[in-house]
Amino acid sequence: MKIKDLKVYYLKVPLKKEFKTSLRTVKIAEEIIVEIETDTGDIGYGEAAPTAVITGDINSSISGIIQKYIRPKLIGESIGNIEKIHFLIEESAVNNNSAKAAVEMAVYDLFAQKLDVPLYKILGGYRNSLNSDLSISVNSPAQMKVEALQAVSDGYQVLKLKVGKDYQKDLDRFRAVRNAVGKNIKIRLDANQGWQPKEAVSIIRAMEAENLKPELIEQPVKADDYQGLKFVRDSVLTPIMADESLFSARDCLHLLKMQACDLINIKLMKAGGIYNALKINAIAEAYGIEVMLGSMLEAKVSVTAAAHLAAAKKNITRLDLDAPLYLAEDPVEGGIILNGRQISFPDEKGLGIRKLNNLIEIK
Ligand SMILES: [Mg+2]
């Protein structure tokens, strides 16, 4: 099975409602889709999300890198040579992790198809169903409370509150939601770099003093402020998770050697694909650090790849893969089955993606 062609498409999907974090407000999800065709007539799919404020990647940079730098290296390569293909992609350009992730997941899709098994089975096969949390956009405390109550009545047991905006108000947001949903719902908070280190310590200590029980706090401070992250981690009891601070295996080693965080969040768009994500997870596991598998605002192709990775590994204990539920329509036929918080895998080989609708080819 050899790579015969690689095509790049643009996909645009409106959201059901605005997605708001401390870093950005999004109304429409835009994705780049990769389709690799082999000499045997098989098709593998990949996807990249342009998230300029986190990865620096935008549509035109993703499609340009894939078409001009990655595609020429891969035509004619054997799908079985995963390690070789990984390094051909990796060495095609520095950075550009979203583009690399998209191409590489299409290769993994084909590799699993070739072996006639669902992808999660060749990556490890630890479990075959998953539960995701649901993210609540940062808004007024009253609005977040309404959305949290809706999520709980829809069956979610873990909520992720987006905070990190108007620091004084974040405690009110959390308190409003906690009081509304009660003590049995797990609530994790994601500040998306929105606090200064001392602000973070003060607000987290206030939450602890009020017994609001945050399960964890994600990325309280700026991505490159490793000392600040460690200061927060050392100053509070609540577990601290690194997200935007950690893209690569080297970042992971650096943070964990410093003991700067208690947990990490791996996303394929940051790591540059499944191969690197496996490496980061292995490092974390060696340090006794559990992993959350998250995503950007992605459609169901790359979220399916992320779910397969999460199902494969014991050390991936938390899931934040609710992004496809934000989309007003689902342009992806096949892939994972999303039933509220529950994610399951149809008994299909590879990623199990049959077809994508509304694609616009980028020539
Ligand atoms: Mg995050």
Automatic annotation (TrEMBL):
Highest rank taxon of the organism? Bacteria
Active-site residues from the entry: K162, K267
The entry's family comment says: Belongs to the mandelate racemase/muconate lactonizing enzyme family.
Which Enzyme Commission numbers does its entry carry?
5.1.1.-
What is the protein's name according to its record? Dipeptide epimerase
Q: What InterPro entries is this protein classified in?
A: Dipeptide_epimerase, Enolase-like_C_sf, Enolase-like_N, Enolase_C-like, Mandelate_racemase_C, Mandelate_racemase_N_dom
Organism whose genome encodes this protein: Halanaerobium kushneri
Q: Which keywords describe this protein according to UniProt?
A: Isomerase, Magnesium, Metal-binding
Required cofactor(s): Mg(2+)
SMART domains registered for this protein in UniProt: MR_MLE
